[in-house]
């Protein structure tokens, strides 16, 4: 009996087919199983980028000490070693900047979140309201001329301190204190959205940021700030609050100097911090105007958080000697986080006085990181 050829045996081909099918199913399953992982890794590698520039803690620490006129020499990628008589060793992975207890500056605070502007850039701002020529530079000149003047100040600051790039800003009074009570008796006037829209559009032309300033009059921060929520949710829009026109005593704005307590300021900080968290924003900047001691009470209780950068802005006008004394007594001597300094084109030049220059302000301790022109 002749043996059947193996190639003609149907069972042979059936076995081959089963082996082939098993191989396809087995390796195909593992390939399919691993595919999502490969896609995810590819997306992470080629698509997902940080939403904001990551915080460089070493540079942050270095710049804080520069503002305080502390010479810390060169920096390393892991830590800054500073003389023990001034600043303790700072580890770049730490979450807190640790300053010497014998020095008021730099202030011990939490590191800010990614995307923080300060102290990496100095902000130079024009202040005012479009409805008034007396409230500041914003309302005194046509748009193109005003922006050109601001750029000239930016250039001066860039030349005076090349190590700290300047970010231009428009600081608009969105809620203005009034000499008349109004229908609700609050002595304040809220600006229409069209005016705020206009200042934001102007800032975009110069790649700048915006501050919306609030003068509460007889109202409160709790009543006024939430009404600006849709604007404060925009990344480049920040906030200023003015204790001078916070009339807790019920008097008319402008007749006496008003006040905010740390509790008022903490409400504002917490409101902004929550807004940052809800909208995945970079840290907000809060400007607090000040030129007397009673304008801000219980400053030691002001909270600092990673979502908000706080600037105490020296808001007084007059001769350079008087302004420097005010800066020392109420800004330097009561440290919070960062400092600012206001310059008045008109009031600082009365009685044959001269307005202080960038070089003058850079000699102050700490160097102001926010400069406001009115």
Structure in words:
With 374 residues, the protein is of the alpha/beta class. It folds into three domains: 6-46; 55-111, no CATH class; 122-373, TIM Barrel. The chain is built from nine helices and 13 strands. The strands form three sheets. An eight-stranded parallel β-barrel has the order 3-4-6-7-9-11-12-13, surrounded by four helices. Strands 1-2 form a two-stranded antiparallel ribbon. The longest helix is centred in the N-terminal third of the chain and has 37 residues, at 10-46. The radius of gyration is 29 Å and the shape is elongated. It starts with 9 loop residues before the first helix and ends with a strand. 37% of the residues are buried.
Quick structural summary:
This protein has 374 residues and is an alpha/beta fold.
What is the strand and helix layout of this fold?
Elements: H1 10-46, H2 57-67, E1 79-80, E2 90-91, E3 122-128, H3 143-160, E4 166-177, E5 188-190, H4 193-205, E6 209-214, H5 221-224, H6 229-232, E7 237-241, E8 260-261, H7 262-279, E9 284-290, E10 296-297, E11 308-314, H8 320-332, E12 338-343, H9 358-361, E13 370-373
Parallel strand pairs: 3-4, 3-13, 4-6, 6-7, 7-9, 8-10, 9-11, 11-12, 12-13
Antiparallel strand pairs: 1-2, 4-5
């Amino acid at each position: 009996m002749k043996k059947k050829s193996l190639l003609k045996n149907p069972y042979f081909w059936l076995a081959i087919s089963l082996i082939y099918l098993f191989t396809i199913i087995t390796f195909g399953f593992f390939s399919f199983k691993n595919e999502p992982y490969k896609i995810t890794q590819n997306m992470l590698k080629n698509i997902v980028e940080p939403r904001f520039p990551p915080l460089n803690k070493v540079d942050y620490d270095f710049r804080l000490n520069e503002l305080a006129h502390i010479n810390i020499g060169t920096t390393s990628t892991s830590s800054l070693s500073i003389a023990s008589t001034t600043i303790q060793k700072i580890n770049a992975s730490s979450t807190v900047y640790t300053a010497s207890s014998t020095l008021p500056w730099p202030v011990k605070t939490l590191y800010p979140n990614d995307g923080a502007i300060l102290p990496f850039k100095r902000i130079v701002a024009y202040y005012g309201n479009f409805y008034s020529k007396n409230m500041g530079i914003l309302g005194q000149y046509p748009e193109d001329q005003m922006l050109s003047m601001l750029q000239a100040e930016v250039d001066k600051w860039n030349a005076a301190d090349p190590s700290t790039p300047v970010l231009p800003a428009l600081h608009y009074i969105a809620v203005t204190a009034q000499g008349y009570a109004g229908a609700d008796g609050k002595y304040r006037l809220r600006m229409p959205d069209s005016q705020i829209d206009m200042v934001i559009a102007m800032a975009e032309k110069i790649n700048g940021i915006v501050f919306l300033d609030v003068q509460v009059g007889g109202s409160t921060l709790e009543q006024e700030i939430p009404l600006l929520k849709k604007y404060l949710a925009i990344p480049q829009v920040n906030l200023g609050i003015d204790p001078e026109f916070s009339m807790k005593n019920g008097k008319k704005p402008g007749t006496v100097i008003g006040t905010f307590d740390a509790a008022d300021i903490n409400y504002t900080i917490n409101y902004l911090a929550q807004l940052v968290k809800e909208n995945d924003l970079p840290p907000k900047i809060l400007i607090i105007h000040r030129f007397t001691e009673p304008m801000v009470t219980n400053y030691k209780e002001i909270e600092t958080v990673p979502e908000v950068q706080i600037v105490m802005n020296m808001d007084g006008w007059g001769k350079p000697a008087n302004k420097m004394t005010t800066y020392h007594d109420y800004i330097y001597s009561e440290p919070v986080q960062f400092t600012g300094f206001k310059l008045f084109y008109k009031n600082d030049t009365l009685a044959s006085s001269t307005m202080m220059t960038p070089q003058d302000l850079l000699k102050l301790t700490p160097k102001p990181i926010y400069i406001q022109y009115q």
